[in-house]
Amino acid sequence: MCYTIALNFEDGITRFVDCKPGEKVLDAAFRNKINLPMDCSDGVCGTCKCRAESGSYDLGEDYIEDALTEDEAAEGLVLTCQMVPSSDCVLSVPVTAASCKTGQQTFAATVTRIEPHHDAAVVLELEAGDAPVFLPGQYVNIDVPGGGDHRSYSFSTAPGERSLGFLIKKIPGGLMGNWLSCAKPGDTLALTGPMGSFYLRDGDGPLLFLAGGTGLAPFLSMLEVLARAGSRRHVHLIYGVTRDQDLVLVDQIAAYAKRLPNFTFATVVADPASDHPRKGWVTQHMPEEMLATPGVEVYLCGPPPMVDAVRHYLDDNGIRPASFHYEKFTPNAPLKAIA
């Protein structure tokens, strides 16, 4: 049995390597032709220091205090030359992928379904030859055929499947939208990734998901992963949109309430003329009792004004979640996620 180690580089590129039982992460990376930072490889210099975001591992005792202090180890810092995983792990690597002589991966996928949702969004389903590995919440760049450009979209489906889903905002005259209007099943697309530091972390604390428009996509991936794992975590999703017709895939969200015993959600429409029972902004509907719960983790994905509004709300009200992860996106591409 091998463990899967996700290496998240500081430029947003993620590479996955298989690590054999008893094998050190540095050796597994080299075997997969990824040159992680190193100098001594003996636990002496600290050059290979990274941060373990999740997973179980053993660091042994064959390293010195100057390379990794007790406090650093308690905070999740590791020496990859000493780290032996005992589960799948996610590591943040404090250098670029290029400096480790690796880079983005490109793969092909075939269109299987295109489903418009009014003038708001399009559900795009693809099938890949091999199931791509990614972290729930990450995105890929999709080349627009004939356009010489690409657009960035988060997976709305769970990792480990050949069937890939995306939720794409309809933009009048948009490059991808124009192509989708004449695309058909069987067409081929080139995808590059995965990328991004916006992804679901391990833990057992309550989760508050805040989605704006097609920023719903990464949360669908996260919810599917939680459901398959039989998670008992308390999860509340607030899905905010501008107009009634922008609310899409609500039935799919509701289905998770049957699969996740502690999952609830609310939809919010900003349009004051709407008949929706909850109007206004996401910040007006965040449950205060949940935000005050120790250990609550907040995940936010939406357009820049929404992200900025939530950040200011938390700051202005002195709310400090155990962790706060967010990703802004523009109609063309997501900006770099900040965690």
From TrEMBL:
<dbReference type="InterPro" id="IPR012675">
    <property type="entry name" value="Beta-grasp_dom_sf"/>
</dbReference>
<dbReference type="Pfam" id="PF00175">
    <property type="entry name" value="NAD_binding_1"/>
</dbReference>
<dbReference type="InterPro" id="IPR039261">
    <property type="entry name" value="FNR_nucleotide-bd"/>
</dbReference>
<dbReference type="InterPro" id="IPR017927">
    <property type="entry name" value="FAD-bd_FR_type"/>
</dbReference>
<dbReference type="InterPro" id="IPR001709">
    <property type="entry name" value="Flavoprot_Pyr_Nucl_cyt_Rdtase"/>
</dbReference>
<dbReference type="InterPro" id="IPR017938">
    <property type="entry name" value="Riboflavin_synthase-like_b-brl"/>
</dbReference>
<dbReference type="InterPro" id="IPR036010">
    <property type="entry name" value="2Fe-2S_ferredoxin-like_sf"/>
</dbReference>
<feature type="domain" description="2Fe-2S ferredoxin-type">
    <location>
        <begin position="3"/>
        <end position="97"/>
    </location>
</feature>
<dbReference type="InterPro" id="IPR050415">
    <property type="entry name" value="MRET"/>
</dbReference>
<protein>
    <submittedName>
        <fullName>Benzoate 1,2-dioxygenase electron transfer component BenC</fullName>
    </submittedName>
</protein>
<dbReference type="InterPro" id="IPR001041">
    <property type="entry name" value="2Fe-2S_ferredoxin-type"/>
</dbReference>
<dbReference type="InterPro" id="IPR047683">
    <property type="entry name" value="BenC-like_FAD_NAD-bd"/>
</dbReference>
<dbReference type="InterPro" id="IPR006058">
    <property type="entry name" value="2Fe2S_fd_BS"/>
</dbReference>
<dbReference type="InterPro" id="IPR001433">
    <property type="entry name" value="OxRdtase_FAD/NAD-bd"/>
</dbReference>
<dbReference type="Pfam" id="PF00970">
    <property type="entry name" value="FAD_binding_6"/>
</dbReference>
<feature type="domain" description="FAD-binding FR-type">
    <location>
        <begin position="104"/>
        <end position="201"/>
    </location>
</feature>
<dbReference type="Pfam" id="PF00111">
    <property type="entry name" value="Fer2"/>
</dbReference>
<dbReference type="InterPro" id="IPR008333">
    <property type="entry name" value="Cbr1-like_FAD-bd_dom"/>
</dbReference>
